[in-house]
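Lecture notes, unit on binding sites. The following record was shown on slide 14. It pairs a sequence with nicotinamide-adenine-dinucleotide.
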Amino acid sequence: MKAETTPRKFYELDLEERLQEVRRLSGLSPEELHALAGQNGLTAEQADHMIENAVGVYALPLGIARNFLVNGREILVPMAIEEPSVVAGASFMARLARPLGGFRAETTPPEMIGQMQILEVSDPQAARQRLLDARAELLEAAANTDPVLKKYGGGPRDIEVRVLEDTPIGPFLVLHLIYDVRDAMGANAINTTLESLAPLAARITGGRVHLRILSNLADRRLARASAVFRPQDLAFDRFSGEEVRDGIIAAWAFAAADPYRAATHNKGIMNGVDAVVIATGNDWRAIEAGAHAYAARSGRYTSLSTWRRDAEGNLTGSIELPMAVGIIGGATRVHPAARAALKLMGVSSAAELAQIIAAVGLAQNLAALRALATEGIQRGHMSLHARQIAAAAGAEGSLVSRIADQMVKEQNIRAERAAELLKEYNQPESAES
Ligand code: NAD
């Protein structure tokens, strides 16, 4: 009889073996794999073309979340993040979503909002009406500023005009240009169009166009994801599936009702969201700004996700947030690791990327709620946290795990203790005996 060996799990492989496994599953070339792994990623020369006063590049850990099934497609999710437990949490929750079909996700059209502030208008209400009457002329002028975007089916869709009455400098006009940016994040595209439109808007209103800039509250460009979890898949240790489900719903209700809790709840969501946004070279400040502004859209800051029990007793989760990410432009095409990350996911549109990111945010949210509602967040965190502390104290190689394990055993995970242990373990053998 042949001896059977259980194949090792992804997390049990070493770094090189994981890369080979990613290669096997994704078909990335060795060069792309190395770029993803940071081995021949962004160079200082490339960085010098991206920002001012560049002196080099800055690295972050890059992990691959497993088990993601989004709209029926298997996806390896690249996550750039320095915080322990995030990649494991997302992968684990993605696995729990699989029995009932994984994540379903969708997006609204990639419409961004460009804002124009128009000052010194003598009769703002009348000027507003003149702008609305000139809608067709404004849209036509905006349509011709970006021929490439036009070719791909993007361009202006509408205008909105408001009079902001109650401001510290008195009333002024705000024009919104609704602009379909297709597969771009869209900031440059919109800002350029707004600038070219400004003289026309000034002429129509008789005012002075002041700011011309996109809004990061991209509330017309939403990504939504949902998933259903069976109670039996949520059970663990001494906690029944029903207990975990109800605990998660109660934890969500706290975030839904209280901004202090909602901020931390949404931060957990953004742990997953930002990690993919960063890995793909997208602008995470824009995503953060959009998410939190959207969470406060009712006037009271609240949860970006919703957790409920369905008629069959399953746990259902859903999330909705602005998702202004691109697969064209910005750093997405310049950064070699970002290019490899997009290829790894096999995304062919910004919408598809946005859907995956929303699914990761939902998975991450569940990971945090499940831990908080049961054993508390620290237990799962502890061992990786201890490894970080050990490494920060100067431990290298096998000493990292040895010191981390000892600190976890002692339930004393502190820098001082790590330093003591490092000193102790670094003593020559003879000194120990
Ligand atoms: P971009 O200008 O580099 O690329 C977009 C352009 O690519 C389009 O205008 C179009 O001409 C072309 N293009 C080619 N194929 C396309 C396709 N399939 N779909 C859409 N466009 C296509 O980038 P961007 O997305 O306009 O701007 C993103 C950058 O702007 C990011 O680096 C971001 O950090 C930065 N930014 C952000 C803000 C903000 O968020 N407030 C402000 C200013 C700049």
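Take-home: The beta strands are 62-70, 73-80, 104-107, 111-119, 155-164, 172-180, 208-215, 222-229, 305-309, 315-322.
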